[in-house]
Amino acid sequence: MTLIPTTEERYEEMLEILPPIAFDGNNFLVGEPFTHRVCSVTGNFSATYDGYCFDGEHYLVTDQDVTRAEFKKLLLKNQEEN
């Protein structure tokens, strides 16, 4: 799983379509929690969502549904790389 480019328009649309599951100002998870699987970070059975972020320059989206813990790990990796 990784972060891939998206548009500002898509980022804004998804931010407004449903209340975010988690939101920290520029990064959020969105979706209905109907998909669950074992989280690759915690090993727990968890709901998955689409993750969106704005890193100050780029609008990004996860390339697959992620858990909260997986999204946090991706965001940390993205911060370290930039």
Description of the structure:
By secondary structure, the chain is of the alpha+beta class. The chain has one domain. The protein is built from two helices and seven strands; from the N terminus they run βαββββββα. The chain has helices at residues 8-17, 68-81; strands at residues 3-5, 22-23, 27-30, 36-38, 45-47, 50-54, 59-62. The strands form two sheets. Strands 1-7-6-3-2 form a five-stranded antiparallel β-sheet, with helices on both faces. Strand 6 (50-54) and strand 7 form a beta hairpin. The chain starts with a strand and ends with a helix. The mean pLDDT is 94.
Overview in brief:
The protein has helices at 8-17, 68-81; strands spanning 3-5, 22-23, 27-30, 36-38, 45-47, 50-54, 59-62. It has 82 residues and is of the alpha+beta class. It has one domain.
- Low-confidence runs: none
Instruction: Please estimate the helix content.
Output: 25-40%
**Topology order in helix (H) and strand (E) letters:** EHEEEEEEH
List the strand order in the largest sheet.
1-7-6-3-2
What share of residues are in beta strands?
25-35%
Major sheet: 5 strands, antiparallel
**What would you call the structural class?**
alpha+beta
State the shape.
globular
